[in-house]
Amino acid sequence: MPVLELRDVTAGYYAGHPVLSGLSLAIEEGEFVGIIGPNGSGKTTLVRVMAGAFPQTSGEVLLGGRRVDEWSRRKLARMLAVVPQMSAPPFAFTVREFVDMGRTPYVAPWAPLGAEDAKAVDRALTIVALTELATRPVTELSGGEFQRAALARALAQEPKLLILDEPTTFLDPAHTIHTLSVLEDENSRGLTLVAILHDLNLAAAYCHRVVALKAGRIFADGPAAEVLAAPVLEALFETPILVEEDAQGRPRVTLVKVKAPDVA
Known about the structure:
- The chain is of the alpha/beta class and about 260 residues long.
- The protein has nine helices and twelve strands.
- The strands form three sheets. Strands 6-7-8-3-9-10 form a six-stranded mixed beta sheet, sandwiched between helices.
- Helix 4 packs antiparallel against helix 5.
């Protein structure tokens, strides 16, 4: 049984203007799936529908074989966590307080965190390299630091499935590699991952499978080496793209410089 399955899902923000159209997709346990596609292709809407945060107008979304809208919010949060595109909240929680929120599904309302909760938070802060910033207000973090705090909160949640919308946004190269290495390690421990990625070389390096969206439909789906091929990518993004093979035999994608159109 897939961890998550979308069956003929259509969803949109305005009647008669679907963002996703008849989309079917199954995520198997233990996969690391990269979602790619042009701007406006429906990637973020897909993430919101997967997480049960945005209702589809038709079709079904199943988590563990059960419709996602039938899960209680507490049980859903123990199964699935999301790292969305976000900016720092307006309240000056400390980093640790912010990451503590990932334990909400496991504690009674207004109850303090227990020893196991604290252990999960400590581990999350450690693996994203934020322990030294634990007492700093999140409102004082850089964009990249806050992105790592959001990942730590999701990891502290200890879900079975983690969905990430552009997890390397705001990150410098070193923290980009560190973050994806953390995700790769968590995946090897059994965490199923779905991540929207704009950097196609990162998708090639870390994802087992790549799903390409275009105009709200699945344009291509398969192993990274098959989807990240020049003919597929050029048709997907409608621009010249060069794909070579790196030293590890993985696709290496290079954008081809083109002349901007003349403006009268």
